Amino acid sequence: MRASLADAARIIAQLPPTSVYGRVAAAHGSLIEVEGLLRHASIGAHIRIEADGDLLDAEITGLDRDVAHCLPFCEPRGLAVGARAHLCAGQETIRPSRAWLGRMVDGLGRPVDGKGPLPMGGAARPMRAEPPPAAARARVGARVETGVRALDLFAPLCVGQRLGLFAGSGVGKSVLLSMLARWTACDVAVIGLVGERGREVQEFIEDDLGPEGLARSVLVVATSDAPALMRRQAAWTTLAVAEYFRDAGLHVLCLMDSVTRFAMAQREIGLANGEPPASRGYTPSVFAELPRLLERAGPGREGEGSITGLFTVLVDGGDHDEPVADAVRGILDGHVILSRHIAEQGRYPAVDLLKSVSRTLPHCLSPAQNALRTQARALLSLHGDMEEIVRLGAYQAGSNPQVDRAIALGPRIEEMLRQGKDEPGDAQAAFAKLAEILEPQGEAHENAL
């Protein structure tokens, strides 16, 4: 009797694991309805659908009684009603490692650079993770040199800070991002290109990032033609890879271009699931997902590394108060505004110094540096107010000494901030130059820096 039970147990152990599957009931655009997964389906679960002899990866994004609403990670070609849909255990995970440096992956962590398969990393990490508890997080660290004079002087970046780059189209946002990717001091850079133009990806790697920049970077790419689910997933994967290096004790620079396209992808997903459009067509889930994504960057727990985040925001029609820009600005630790007016004047990077804010000020600069920064901002503000009056010839020199000084020094400060994309800056030298412009005896002030 015991032998029979042992034989039966051995046979049962050799049986294949239980496979849960349903059937495709309908497809409406990119939304696929799957029946037969009652009590097994859960939001966020991965599913593979048989389509024309191949397997189509999808995710369950909504549930309606006994119907699971799924969105695919690629175009659902060859999909037919009645096709078998296999439910995979758990949610999608990745296994990053240091061998990923210099590689380019898609939103699911699969290599797309033609350099062969990626080596298996350590423990699996969820692509969508929770940020460290607020009470367990370290504080923002010391100032980081970005190599961009306008930022180092007027909107400095610190270890673990999250800074937004807000700009309309064609103002130099991508070029500024490439300068930051090459010159910002960090151990590892994780770059997420979410919804980017396909032709620009290789240009960014070869022309902007370069071999040295690529060697210390991991790129996560989902171009504009990718389905909404893949674009959203690319943003999550970017943060998941950054978290792996953060947990290893490294200072990670996380660059994402752009948060706006992540929000657009989430809007498409929400509308497909039947969410009502709210502010300017964006669904409520967009404004719920933005803080969940952005809060994952920042300082780690005590003893861990930090993720310094730079997130670009493509403002709709140049309106910096549109819903996504307004929501992101309230979450991040500072914002840098790129002005079309400044770009039209030929000064790049076209950073609007008077509208840009770093919430780590004034503590991240020395008292002497803060004094210089404050004095320069006041001069630039006065120069901007009087610029039109001077151009019209309505101001007479000598009427106001402060205005005379602003008219004389404002253009010199603006010229100092002009910087080519192949011209790395030095923060200490930039403060010394600013002191030379502002103070009659700048050399004495330079020693105080």
TrEMBL record:
The protein's enzyme class: translocase
Domain AAA+ ATPase positions: 159-343
GO biological process: one example: protein secretion by the type III secretion system
Pfam family, any one: T3SS_ATPase_C
Name by which UniProt lists this protein: Flagellum-specific ATP synthase
Organism superkingdom: Bacteria
Example GO molecular function: ATP hydrolysis activity
InterPro entries, A to Z: AAA+_ATPase, ATPase_alpha/beta_chains, ATPase_F1/V1/A1_a/bsu_nucl-bd, ATPase_T3SS_FliI/YscN, FliI_clade3, P-loop_NTPase, T3SS_ATPase_C
Annotated gene: fliI
Record family assignment: Belongs to the ATPase alpha/beta chains family.
Major localization class: cytoplasm
A GO CC term assigned to this protein in UniProt: type III protein secretion system complex
